Amino acid sequence: MTPTLTPPPELVAPATDERCDRCNAAGKLRVRVAEGGELVFCGHHANKYAEQLAKIAVSVAVAPEFTWRGTELMAN
């Protein structure tokens, strides 16, 4: 058996088959919260809720083609 290295979840962009938890559009942002759950949002909802998500996120994974407004908030 060949060992497989898997990068940490925060470095992996959301898979294209994941859907937004609010509207079922394609997922662009995956957020892991302290309670242990994960949320997936489309670009519209990810930016709409960026301030709130930045406050509760333990880690985030952003699709490479998407620019999330919360990235700046997470850095502060």
Order of helices and strands: EEHHEH
* Strand arrangement in the largest pleated sheet: 2-1-3
Number of helices: 3
**Integer-rounded radius of gyration:** 13 Å
Uncertain segments: none
The main sheet comes to: 3 strands, antiparallel
The total of beta strands comes to: 3
Protein name: DUF7455 domain-containing protein
Domain DUF7455: 16-64
Pfam families: DUF7455 (PF24254)
InterPro entries: DUF7455 (IPR055878)
Describe the structure.
This protein has 76 residues and is of the alpha+beta class. Helices cover 25% and strands 20% of the residues. It contains three helices and three strands; from the N terminus they run E-E-H-H-E-H. The protein has helices spanning 43-48, 50-56, 70-75, and strands spanning 29-33, 38-41, 57-62. Strands 2-1-3 form a three-stranded antiparallel β-sheet. Strand 1 and strand 2 form a beta hairpin. The longest helix is centred in the last third of the chain and has 7 residues, at 50-56. The termini are far apart. The mean pLDDT is 84.
List the helices and strands and how they pair.
Elements: E1 29-33, E2 38-41, H1 43-48, H2 50-56, E3 57-62, H3 70-75
Antiparallel strand pairs: 1-2, 1-3
Give the tags.
76 residues, globular, single chain, 3-stranded antiparallel sheet, DUF7455, DUF7455 domain-containing protein, alpha+beta, 25% helix, 3 helices, 20% strand
How do you describe this structure in short?
By secondary structure, the protein is α+β, with helices and mostly antiparallel strands. The protein has 3 helices and 3 strands.
